Amino acid sequence: MMYDTLIIGSGMAGLSAAIYASRARLRFAVVEKEYMGTGQIAYTERVDNYPGYYGTDGFSLGEKFREHAEILGAVFIDGEAVGFQRYDNGWKVMLADGSFLETRTVIYAAGTYPKTLDIAGEKEFSGRGVSYCALCDGAFFADKTVAVIGGGDTALEDALYLSNQAEKVYLIHRRSQFRANKTLQEKAFACKNIELVLDAVPVEIMGTENVTGIKIKQNGTEKAINAEGVFVAVGTIPHTEAVKGTVSLDSGGYIIAGEDCKTSAKGFFAAGDVRTKKVRQVITAAADGANAVISVSEYL
Ligand code: NAP
After folding, report:
1. Cβ–Cβ under 8 Å, residues 228 and 144
2. Which fold has domain 116-232?
């Protein structure tokens, strides 16, 4: 079967695209790597900035998006898209199991995944005290001391979430200015069991069986901070391995595309966190899903 469009990814952008594609009466399906997935939003404890859903948790918001897409008839295909081949009037989407799907256009909404620090001890202690998901692993650190690394929205959200479970949270940031939004900063600064460690660059994660602490370099001096958990929240990397050579990427690996989601390749659109953009939030991912479908409809 030849689809009008295949949506790659079932995060906020992909699900929003599915809602718009069904209303545009396109022949489409959503290809998803994770069965019944909703993308990275599922790992966010609280979402206070998506209009109409104040105070929701990310998992529930993701489920709402999915339910909405399903009510409108979205079809999901389990599979990981690993490559794309352009031919006469469309695209072949290669899947990891060796099969392929055919479509006239692609909406690539594969999102991002957490970046690593790449310091000594990080890999070794991953899963033994080093975590990239506060929501998933926070409960293991009840009444313990943890460190969160980073200065963006994720790091501050993680620090606040962990402050409810851990006895103490060190928030370690390599500069003295935070990237995170002001509301999060105010909350974190006011939190009694969050201690800021600023201008501090992580050097090594220490441990024996499990993590025992983190070594940082601050004002030219190395020092150790004791902690049983280290939560790394230092940004994201786009899932663009599968599209290298197919579309133009920027130096950070994001797909170069504007608000219309058009990429350098004909009939290939990029939506959500995976494309070049300034603001990566649920609302901008959802907007991309809509814009991508409008661009697809115009193209078709
Ligand atoms: P981010 O905004 O890119 O922030 C990454 C942080 O990690 C920065 O503070 C950066 O320091 C630091 N960092 C990067 N590499 C490092 C290294 N090697 N060692 C030490 N520190 C390092 O990433 P994010 O917080 O994951 O957010 C990603 C996107 O999702 C953003 O657009 C964000 O707004 C969005 N987001 C939104 C929400 C929300 O609205 N509720 C929640 C989560 C995420 P520098 O500041 O010095 O560069």
Report:
1. yes
2. FAD/NAD(P)-binding domain (3.50.50)
